[in-house]
Amino acid sequence: MRLVIARCSVDYAGRLSAHLPLATRLLMLKADGSLLVHSDGGSYKPLNWMSPPCSVEIGEPDEEQASAGITQVWTVTQKKTQDKLIVSLYEVLADESHDLGTDPGLVKDGVEAHLQQLLAEQIELLGDGHTLVRREYMTAIGPVDILARDDAGASVAVEMKRNANIDAVEQLTRYLELMNRDPHLRPVQGVLAAQTVAPQARTLAEDRGIRVLVLDYDAMRGIEGGHTRLF
């Protein structure tokens, strides 16, 4: 992984256009070719990014760019969509590379992992006609617990928690923002599935159009007296 702190501007060109004016930012270039642009705020959420599969070209500025103070131009191209993320570097303040090796992935606790397995096996709890695509659907920023399709064939991303709070809603929102940029997946609906959901998390989820599924672990295991509710 290459970490660069630089004064830079960023332009996204493709299905949508976006511009980040000149400022000091962290550029995170991963081994899979993905690039994330971070500011010193916003927690884990990048200001902009390009997810794999993509190619990275680091080039010299042309005469006009050089006269404006640009020293390097990074062009990150999404191979499927040909969208481009263009980073114009004016000054590099730090530049480090680290080999992180193979990551073992997120290890969930026993109940949460079992909930995911049970919901995958009982995918109809999401609604009539839903089908499972796969568990642990990998994105550039982490795995979505379950990817499914509804009765109309639309994508459904499910985030599983034992106890869901606002952080869980923010995490699912981040996945949805990324997945809805993929033409093969969008539109993607979000479902927050948990044994308990904090009131603030429910309010935020509903405001963002995310469904909330309250899971009864005992009912899913076949123990009498349980029930599951979808809001």
Write the layout of secondary structure elements.
Elements: E1 2-13, E2 18-29, E3 35-38, E4 48-50, E5 54-59, H1 63-67, E6 72-78, E7 84-97, H2 110-121, E8 131-139, E9 142-149, E10 155-164, H3 166-179, E11 188-197, H4 199-207, E12 211-214, H5 217-220, E13 229-230
Parallel strand pairs: 10-11, 11-12
Antiparallel strand pairs: 1-2, 1-7, 2-3, 3-4, 5-6, 6-7, 8-9, 9-10, 12-13
Helix pairs in contact: 3-4
InterPro entries: Endonuclease_NucS, NucS_C, NucS_N, NucS_N_sf, tRNA_endonuc-like_dom_sf
Main location: cytoplasm
Subcellular location: Cytoplasm
Structural summary, described in words:
The protein is of the alpha+beta class. It has helices at 63-67, 110-121, 166-179, 199-207, 217-220; strands at residues 2-13, 18-29, 35-38, 48-50, 54-59, 72-78, 84-97, 131-139, 142-149, 155-164, 188-197, 211-214, 229-230. Helix 3 runs parallel beside helix 4. It is elongated and about 70 Å long. It starts with a strand and ends with a strand. The model has no long low-confidence stretch (mean pLDDT 89).
Which stretches of 5+ consecutive residues score pLDDT under 50?
Answer: none
What's the total helix number?
5
Structural class: alpha+beta
Biggest sheet features: 7 strands, antiparallel
Radius of gyration: 21 Å
Shape: elongated
User: Which whole number gives the mean pLDDT?
Assistant: 89
Q: Tell me the number of strands.
A: 13
Percent range for β-strand residues: 35-45%
Distance between the termini: 41 Å
String of helices and strands: EEEEEHEEHEEEHEHEHE
What percent of residues adopt helix (DSSP H or I)?
10-25%
- In order across it, which strands form the biggest sheet? 4-3-2-1-7-6-5
Domain Endonuclease NucS N-terminal PH-like: 2-104
Keywords: Cytoplasm, DNA-binding, Endonuclease, Hydrolase, Nuclease
Protein name: Endonuclease NucS
InterPro entries: Endonuclease_NucS (IPR002793), NucS_C (IPR048301), NucS_N (IPR048302), NucS_N_sf (IPR049173), tRNA_endonuc-like_dom_sf (IPR011856)
